[in-house]
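TL;DR need structure tokens for one chain.
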Amino acid sequence: MSDAAPRRGGLRQSEDDRAGHAVRTGVPLVRAARAAWFLDFDGTLVELAETPDHVRVEAEVLDMVRELERASRGAVALISGRRIEDVDRLFVPLHLPVAGQHGAERRGASGRLHKYPARGIGTMHGILRAWVERRPGLLLENKGSTMAVHYRRAPELAEKLGAFMQELVGRTHGRYCLQGGKMVFEIRPSGMDKGSAVLEFMQEPPFVGRMPVFVGDDISDESAFAAVLSLGGTAVKVGDGDSIAPWRLQGVADVHTWIRCSIAARSSEEEAG
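>> reply
TL;DR here they are.
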């Protein structure tokens, strides 16, 4: 089909009915059983909300992730800026491999927890909290190893907020850095990001030896895109904005459709075999 998206990073196009989906979305389907799936959460699996606490995971999304876990024989990990305990709470009863706080904490498929020690973040939190409390509309999250300030309710403060947080990380002599996002700035440990989390997962069962796929919507996902591309995998950007990801889906609903079609493609191949 001349108007279909080209093959890249280990993706494959299915025939007939499945090929139509590749044309519509621009993203060919993935062999679910052969891939290592790394999925961002907010803005990718669920729509963004006014505050993080307003986000809910609907039953159909849980079912979809559960089916993907089965189809890939457990090679599904969630890669989030949230704390692991918050991701677990939202995905009950599932208990998936997960990287939280942009890689500052990570739980492998074995259940082993890896956590970056938070050094000096308490001092920064006290200073930042005092600054935020004097400016209505800002929301501060202290996640333990990282801190985030959401300015969705006060977008006019973005420039001042970013400058102040950059000044704070400058005092840490390189231990921490500033990460921008959609209506949020986040302070995180230097050298720890979503890309480093993906690379660590790829050295462990059941991910090792598989073709990595990362799907994400934000600038914080660019390090993970780079990681999977360096391994010959596939990066899928959700929504608008510049990205190194070769493939793009327009929104959360398209992500769900693409994942479900990849699962169905795997089931069809099994039946045919």
